[in-house]
Amino acid sequence: MNTPAAPAHLSPQLRQNATTQAMMLDVMVALVPTLGMAVFLFGPRVLALCAISIAACVCFEWLYRRLTHQSSTISDLSACVTGMLLALSLPVSSPYWVPVLGGAFGIIVVKQFYGGLGKNFMNPALAGRMLAATLPILMTTWAQPLQWASMARPDAVSAATPLASLHDGTLPTQTLSQLFLGQQGGCMGEVSSAMLLLGFVYLLLRRVISARVPLAYLGTVALISLLFYPSGVNPLLWAAYQLLGGGLIMGAIFFATDPTTTPVTPRGQIMFGVGCGLLTMLLRYHGSYPEGVGWSILTMNCLVWLMDRMGMPRRFGIGRFTVTKNWVTEIKSSLAEIKFVKPERKLDFLGLKEGKMPGEAYLDTLRTQLKSLAPVALVFVVTCVVISGIHTITDLDTARAEARKQRELLSQVMPQAETSSETPYRANGALSILAGYSGDGELLGYCVEVQSQGFSGAITMVVGVDLDGKVTGVAVTSHTETNRVGTEAMTEEALSQYVGRSGTLRTSGDNSVDVVTGATATSKAITAGVNRALAIVANLDTEGEVEYVDSDV
Amino acid sequence: MTHSFFGGVFPATRKESTRRKPLNLLSESPREIILPLSMSADGPSIPLVRPGDRVRLGQPVARWSETGGAAAHASVSGKVTAVEDRPHPWGGSSPAIVIRSDGQDTPWEGSPDPLTLREANLTLLIERVQQAGIVGMGGAAYPAWKKLDQAAGRVDTLIINAAECEPYVTADHRLLLERAKYVIQGGELLARCLGASHVVLVTEGDKLNAVESLERRLRRNKLVRLCTVRTRYPLGAEKQIVQTVTGREVPPGGSPLDVKCVVFNLATVFAMQDAFFQGRPLTHRVVTVTGGAVTRPRNLWVPIGTPWRTLLEACGGLREEAELLLTGGPMMGVRLASLDAPVIKSTNSLVCLTTFERKPESTGSVCIRCGKCVESCPMHLAPTFIRQALKSSDQTALVKLHPEDCNGCGCCSFICPAQIPLVEMVSQAKALLEKGEMAP
What we know:
The structure holds two protein chains of two kinds. Chain A is an alpha+beta fold. Helix content of chain A is 50%, strand content 7%. In chain A, strands 1-2-3-4-5 form a five-stranded antiparallel sheet. Chain A is extended and about 120 Å long. Chain B has helices spanning 16-19, 122-132, 144-151, 171-178, 180-194, 208-217, 238-246, 266-278, 308-314, 372-376, 383-391, 395-401, 411-415, 422-435, and strands spanning 23-25, 32-36, 46-47, 54-55, 60-63, 72-73, 78-87, 93-101, 157-161, 198-204, 224-229, 261-265, 284-290, 298-303, 324-327, 334-335, 349-353. In chain B, the strands form four sheets. Chain B has a six-stranded mixed sheet with strand order 1-14-13-17-15-16. In chain B, strands 2-8-7-4 form a four-stranded antiparallel sheet, with no helix packed on it. Chains A and B meet through α1 of A and β8, β16, α13 and α14 of B.
């Protein structure tokens, strides 16, 4: 008898209207207010950049699919969304080739190499943008809002971004309402929180995204900025500026909700948002750049698989209690399987083995152990060879001798000082000006290297001058004076008479130093050098424009 | 205290065309009715009549056997013309008793006497329900007496399912509105016989007039409680309705009895009280004929066995070409292969969808991992991961994903923006795990 069984229910005969294409279109619609505000703030160049970016992304997608003989996927509009997001996350001053470069990287490397829509693990637009961010000047100059950038070559004005002041631990100069409406320096799309939130509401109403990721993200950022804020700053204001400044809202609404690169499971999505928030605040507080939204979202993109696994929904009909109970029984049963056996102690490595002498067995053991140690030993030997090679090749001794000479000179010129360092001061007639510091880092004086004309050539000397303008020591580093004659004026004894002197020194009369007999010219030259060094220290400046006239000695 | 279930979807209800239309009898009884012998989920019934026999309205024409099946009764008076294969709404054809009506609807005298609530007890109720041939009228078609027998003494909550979450269908809405008194009596009767301490009538907020009339009636009723929830599909699914009312989750592979609940469809409760208090067998049921292609959508009170073609004619026929004919609502329903198939006990509607209402089927594009299927699955499954595991025939992964929990509600397929047939894939995975091998 032919009996029909109760029918198996298959696919519902109705479908909701939203297709992938419609979702992508909705995202673009949600970006329209942001785009409009960007045009209002930064001028028509925004539109040009946007058009170029979208065109580039669509072109690359089409080209790649064409060249690899795959079906064309440009009709799903995902490349358009990528292009639009990429453009809006760039500063208005970026040259026109930047979105093309970012688009090429995002579409080809990040998206299509991994199999196209739905298979990429990083947000293509964000990856393209962050690649562009690695270009040095490009992403650190921010155009001034409400001053339209020129279409051809925008000036690289650097407007103060609120994040830069937040990074320094102070509140920005802009008011919160200015920030909310978009009067701040920044990327084209990220400045106006109001318009971004408008887009967010649209996406929520159209059920394109769920509020889980953005709310978890923004909530974490708010919580952390309320918990950790610099002293003397109102925490509420601080949190508000953290939320409204930079690309946080744009990232949370448009980049962290990209379906492909965020977790599938609801619980995973919340974890993703919290993780993004934590990373962003870590980068903002401790990173060298003021902003951390892009990197944190990209980092969390790479951890999606983990959050998907951890956020798997609980099986229906298995209560939380039962889940815990099952877990406990599982642990218990696996613990029960562990048998504690009293280990048998045997010391047999010296024991006699059949057919072998006692020492032989031990040698075998040693040999096997050595074999296992061989790679380690090899690495060790190679490292030693490399290091000794570096030693022989590089002239470490010379460098050490140089350093030692420096130290000796310092101890001669300024015995109190222990370290010296470069100073920004420059002066006509001074070869170098070093600052001398005591062991605790206290500034003691300056060591000025000067040159003066001696009997038969230039004499180079270093003169130490303390902060009171007194000479602490003089050392001659090079000269061409006649031996025995000229050098008489360079003995320790002769040089020590300068120590403690100040003012203009003369060779006779008031404030004079004794001229060494037979080396008058040299003595005079040294005195002149010391005088110049004293004058330089008395008139220290960074420009080097002061003329020092050698006084008559 | 309110509970709710996880997930679900919000299809457009599209009930406006019939929600205000009262239950009508057919203007003339059908000339021919077809009573398929398999109207119950657990097997075919055995015919009691032969061609040429004269039958009257309410006279039993088939009986249940030890293996299964349910009693069937003539829903018109007339002459049995044949017992032969006829198209069945579940697909294919099956043996059916064909009765030619004489147009008189002469009642059968042998019906049992009416009883009162005082006389109610479980044995009597089961006997009456068995004789009346009542099966689950929400679509499951499981014999009601077996369910009563299993539930007796084991439940504390009786749930009357008036949550018509399927789009288009308004049969239960009209029944609830127009026969509220009898439904409440039925609930009291069942609670008394089963020993349940609460009766909860679950309905949705979009049936506002029914909710208002019930609230007035139940104001002083201690036993029966009304539970009105927001319209969300699949509220009418057994496990979800139990969760909504009591917050209890039916364990995997279990039935609501495991959490001390029993769920009866509204129409079943109405039929059971009719059988008990009036002694009438199940011969008529409410049917909604609706959809954009129908000229005059209506709610009808029709004899069971009426061919769908007759019903459609009573509604003015099709005004434009129907893309799809469905019985049982567009979400969980099945395609109707032939209009010559009859109304059976478990079908509540005929939905004729136009091409405009039903988007043409697409092949399905790539998954973009939006997670909407996970978010909407009321059984806490992850259909997209099941699909992945099925594609890579990874059995160990499949086992952990529990595709056997799927109740086939189709939320995932409905919501999927890439139009991937996820329910089919989950049911394939289910079959794969049952067989322990890959399906070809």
